[in-house]
Design brief:
six-stranded antiparallel beta sheet; 9 strands; about 40% helix
Length: about 280
């Protein structure tokens, strides 16, 4: 049976790794999860050969894993294409997680109101490996073809407004532990990640929000705000992305950022986690 590579070595943003000497690890289950992690928006369907190349597992092992996952509905096999794609059991498994997130129920009306008012998409995300993953998103009601990332979309943690806000909002010890685990050596003086994190912390401390260094959607500008406390053992961050044609000069910093900050603080008040911070400066 082939050795399995760490998940993060072949699928960006995926968490966890397989240590075959770990006595507590169920290797067969772990390998099945690694196979599921091969699928994303760029790899919608895969053959057994492609999965074997991605994971380092032998083809017979991959064949047994994909057959089993398909039997339980986590993969769908196309007889016409001879390829696998994710099955509906993945969606069914995720539904209880998403439906019982208290923050989504509280935040969505406030997010939708802001999205309608500023003409941009407002989203909530959580950290997932070196990525942020969207758990809720609201587009302007009046937009016919809104530019927005749907639930489950993953974006880079270091350069996006949401990711930078998330990192800046973490307690120092938690941030250090997280970054040491997902990007060893991130705090070396020659590491580009160190500068990104330091700048994000400075922006968060000064304004309460962070700006993106790279905007993933062309001709949009984004701002991110972290939650100040954990909700159900998780940290969250919000972002708002607005098309450039709707923005005046410096509006993302002077208006959209403070507006999103108000939304997040209102959510915290509703959840009973609000902490007063009066040291911010807005330009």
């Amino acid at each position: 049976m082939g050795r399995t590579r760490a998940a993060g070595t072949f699928v960006s943003g995926k968490v966890g790794s397989i240590e075959e000497t770990d006595p507590s690890l169920v290797l067969t289950l772990a390998r099945g999860l690694v196979v599921l992690n091969c699928f994303d928006k760029r790899r919608i369907d895969l053959s057994n050969k492609e999965i074997a190349e991605l994971t380092g597992l032998s083809k017979p092992t991959v064949s047994r894993i994909t057959y089993t996952l398909a039997k339980f509905g986590f993969l769908h096999y196309s007889d016409r294409m001879h390829r696998y794609s994710l099955g509906l059991a993945v969606l069914a498994t995720a539904h209880p997680l998403l439906s019982h997130m208290k923050i989504k129920q509280i935040a969505r009306p406030l997010m939708q109101q802001m999205a309608n008012e500023v003409g941009g998409a407002v989203s909530i995300g959580m950290q997932f490996g070196t990525q942020m993953i969207y758990v809720e998103s609201c587009a302007p009601a009046a937009s016919v073809n809104p530019v927005m990332a749907g639930v489950g979309t993953q974006i880079p943690i270091y350069k996006t407004a949401m990711g930078r806000a998330y990192l800046a909002g973490l307690p120092d010890v938690v941030r250090q532990q997280l970054l040491d685990s997902i990007t060893p050596g991130w705090d070396r003086k020659d590491s580009p990640h160190l500068a990104h994190v330091q700048e994000a912390i400075e922006q968060k401390n000064k304004w309460g929000f962070c700006l993106a260094t790279d905007n993933l959607v062309k001709d949009t500008r984004s701002v991110g705000v972290p939650m100040q406390s954990q909700i159900d053992d998780h940290y969250y961050a919000f972002n708002c992305g607005v098309p450039v044609f709707r923005l005046k000069s410096n509006q993302i910093q002077s208006e959209i950022g403070p507006r999103l900050l108000t939304v997040v603080r209102d959510v915290e008040m509703a959840l009973g986690t609000h902490e007063l911070d009066t040291n911010r400066q807005f330009r």
